[in-house]
Amino acid sequence: MESGLTIRTLLGDGARLIGRFVKAHPLAFAVGVFGAANFAAAIVASAVVVGRVADNLIVPVLDGRETMGGRLWPAVAALSLIAVWKAAGILVRRSGATWMQGRTQADIRTRMVEHLLGLELAWFRKQSTGDLLAVSDSDAARATYVLGPFPYASGAMMLLFGSIGIVTWMDPFLGLVIFVGLTAKVSIDIYGSWTVFELTEEVQRHRGVTSGVAHESVDGALTVKALGREDFEVSRFRAASETLRDVLIDFARKFTFYDAVVDAIPAVMTVVVLLVGVSRIEAGAVTAGDLVTVTYLLSLIAFPLRLLGFVLWETTSSLASWRRVDGVLGITEEMAYGSLDARKMVSGAGVSGSRVSFGYEPDTPVLTDVHFDIPAGRTVAVVGATASGKSTLVTLLARLWDPSTGSIALDGRDLRDFARSALPGEVAFVGQDVFLFDDTVTGNIAFGVDVTPESVAEAASLAGALDFILALPDGFDTRLGERGVSLSGGQRQRIALARALVRRPRLLILDDATSAVDPSVESEILTGLKSSEVPSTVVVVAYRQSSITLADEIVFIDDGRISAHGAHAELLRTSPGYE
């Protein structure tokens, strides 16, 4: 194979993957294997009982040598008990396997989301959202597919060894036939799963690509329709889905070929066993009942044999999916945190920066050698031309990114020294792009914080959202739909602002967060913030003159540097670029 993956590596990596999952939930695995072992034992017992019934009941009666007498009911009772035994084994096996697989999937998905939310935003800029969703959902599920049949396969292995042992004990020649046939089947399954491993990885990769295109098409439906590019998006999705189709067909073709070959082996084994068995009966080595036991056993182990093959093939699929999952879990671009706790203060926070430089790409600086000092309790407007670095600066203040050089401090404490959950207790950020959840108005404003309904209403009022919220069908209990689709842009922005205010932050950062609101309403909101009892330092990226004049201070950014910092009237007199 081009990937260089050997059969030994495939089996070794697959075994380690299964071992990892089993180690996490050993009890569920033990329950599944216990049920599978009982099922296997019941199958072997049923074959032995059927053989004895043939020798001691059916053959003598058919030969006319003996009458049925009272031997029928003991035979029926024995077979019935074995049937109950098998059913109990199936129930226990499936319960253990299903619980283990479902629990493992939940563990992987939870770990994935927790890991993703801990990564730096810089990493997300290089990723496809659709592909990440495919990894978190489809690959996380497929990585555990091997756990479904694995407990049964463990029992099947016991069944195979038990079957080979019983048949060999009855007659070594028949045992050799069984051993050769089973070895051939397992070998073909291993080789077949190895040859399609690369195709399995390709299938999962193209699933991610197709999911990414679908996500973009749905998420950008408004843009697509507004530009009349529906046909273009359909053709783009068709190209991705047809590529996935071709890879799936190639995989199915190879899988079907090997599946047909291994499916034929049990039938061939049965024919060979019958031919050899007849000659062994004639030689007096075995009885007719022994041959019935062997052939019946073969018919019973046909499905377990097939399931053993499923495990090998599912190992291939699970391993390919796990590599994609592990590729994300192995990303080390995580935000580092310190141990500082939030200060329980009821006043605004002072924020300062020293020699701050930053660029989204290594050779393309956005901010260069920036210094600033914003006193606590002030309202500061950040202004400048488009792409001058305004939004970048305020995202650094909220520590959504870290500066490449220099440092930013809150009350003299470096932002990087705060504990993971401490800084959001001090700083609230409302960006240009507002995201609302498919929840009620209250759920969106509170968003996991234990606050009273009165606090929610107070925050909504301060954000200028109370009137339109009360006009909704169920008021604060109205569900907003995904991304707040039922609201206007300005309404979504005001709920997002309320979500920040309900936390009573010491530093409130607004990155053009009221751009979709009428200028008069925006002025009312900003005026309300200045005169309210919420003791915040407010930093707002502003474009409108009305917003700028309400600020205590202005930070004027020009070409990635702070060109001026002072009062509006002062900057008009002293800074030629500030108009």
Describe this structure in words.
With 579 residues, the protein is α/β, with parallel strands linked by helices. The protein contains 20 helices and 10 strands. A 6-stranded mixed sheet has the order 6-7-8-3-9-10, sandwiched between helices. A hairpin with an 8-residue loop joins strand 1 and strand 2 (367-374). The radius of gyration is 35 Å and the shape is elongated. The two termini are 66 Å apart. The model has no long low-confidence stretch (mean pLDDT 81).
Q: Which band does the percent of strand residues land in?
A: 5-15%
The percentage helix is 55-70%
What does the average pLDDT come to?
Answer: 81
Describe the sheet with the most strands.
6 strands, mixed
Radius of gyration: 35 Å
Number of strands: 10
Report strand order across the widest sheet: 6-7-8-3-9-10
**Computed structural class:** alpha/beta
- What is the CA-CA span between the terminal residues? 66 Å
Model regions low in confidence, pLDDT < 50 over at least 5 residues: none
Sum up the overall morphology in one term: elongated
User: What pattern of helices and strands is seen along the backbone?
Assistant: HHHHHHHHHHHEEEHEEHEHHHHEHEHEEH
Q: Give the assembly state of these chains.
A: single chain
Helix run count: 20
